[in-house]
Give the backbone structure.
Amino acid sequence: MVDVTQNGFALRIRKLLPTGWFPMPPATGETEQAPVLNALLQGFGSVFAWIWAMLSGTADQTRLATMTGAFLDMFASDFFGTLLTRNTGESDDAFRIRIEEALFPSLGTRPDVVNVIADEVGTAGRVIEPRNASDCKGLGSMSAPAIGGGYGYGVAALRYGSRGTPFQLFAQLPTGDTNQPAIQTLDRIENVMPAGTIAWVQDVENLG
């Protein structure tokens, strides 16, 4: 492997000098016979080592996977302007993941809505599609709630569906209160949903 340290570059320059003009470089444990020459070449070697390190670092900054520091911020600014900036104290790896997600977003599916809720609230929410049998199943009753598979009308925490409400969903966010959902959360849910669909969003104390 090529020695790209200060001393490595100094030795490479010394080997280019005409034979016989100066003493040979000392072997391990030997005393330097040309200390003035060595000091001069070490100065050159220091500059070349610094340039080499800068070039190596620059190569890493040409790919998103290896970018670090301010280069990541500049990359995000180039693609997204002020829409995607580094959060206070956010690491390079965490910021890189958010940039990749913004570059290649997954859109238009139920898991996207579920992921947005989990990201915004910090825990999984509840998504209910009236036309999804897995969410609503059949009708139950207070006397026999299991008839509808454990879901139904008139039973606490149970739901019933409708074929008359296509392209809609209800989302419950366990924020610990019943305030209006945050505008940022609503915007993010809207951004991942298909055109022409509706989401009814509600903050709840819990999903019980």
